Amino acid sequence: MPHARPTGNVQYDNTGRIVIVSGGCSGIGLAICQAFAEAKAAGVVCLDVDESASDNLPDGVTFYRCDTSDEEQCRAAITWSVERFGALDILVNNAAIQPKESYVPLHELSTEVWDRLVAINFSGYTFLAKYALQQMRQQQSGVIVNIASGQGHRTAREVGTYGPIKAGNIMQARQWAIEYAREGIRVVSVSPGAINTPLVQATLSKQGGEAVIANRHPVGRLGRPEEVASAVLWLASPDASFITGTDLEVDGGLGAFAAFATPYPMRETE
Ligand SMILES: NC(=O)c1ccc[n+]([C@@H]2O[C@H](COP(=O)([O-])OP(=O)(O)OC[C@H]3O[C@@H](n4cnc5c(N)ncnc54)[C@H](O)[C@@H]3O)[C@@H](O)[C@H]2O)c1
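# nicotinamide-adenine-dinucleotide complex -> structure
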């Protein structure tokens, strides 16, 4: 007898959830906010420093100003959100920077740039998770998704500051996953390839331009923010209930490609 095929669409059911997304005013974070709002989450809170961009947030998303590099602001943001919505089901740690000044070999790196990257891209994830976990432990449920990066898995010249910190986001997720698994809390990370966002547009010239970067991805294009958002929605939903401590690469095949073997594209016609 042939294997029965599943029927109907899988619904990444996040109905009624209370969600916090850091860095939700732009790019991937904005797409994640929008996707949760469309999935009928009961509350979506966008934490960001960019108040001017908060006007662009879709209906159903609430803005709260928070500089995630500041522990006290993270504590206040989580407290405010829990008081307003009564629970916290999902935290998406997404706010991060990759300024042009970080594209340097180590001997040229300024301490100021290093400190900013560590403070936002690494400490910020820890601070928000620390206070989110206090609420999730009371509920004995919750999901944390760290947005990491393909550059946390494998590297290139001049990303020696951003890359190791993004690898740290993957390890944060693994660590928190094993610590809180018995309390009904799951923690995962997502590692995007190059996604067409303001962050990437600002640094494309440093990486050889859009066509070069698109071509390095076997699918031949940059990713769209919504393609990362749908992975986050699935991982956060009960459909992914046995998944914790893992990393999902959303990268158009970039991570599967060994650049040392053959240049990409492999055939001229591509
Ligand atoms: N775009 C990509 O190709 C790509 C690839 C791999 C990983 N990522 C990761 O995805 C995430 C989002 O990247 P993006 O491309 O959407 O970036 P983006 O620059 O478009 O958006 C980042 C958002 O974070 C906010 N932010 C910055 N510093 C903050 C702070 N201290 N506190 C609160 N908010 C702050 C910004 O105001 C902005 O709204 C980051 O973690 C990034 O490292 C992006």
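# post-check
The beta strands are 18-22, 43-48, 61-65, 90-93, 142-147, 185-192, 247-250.
The CA atoms of residues 60 and 157 lie 41 Å apart.
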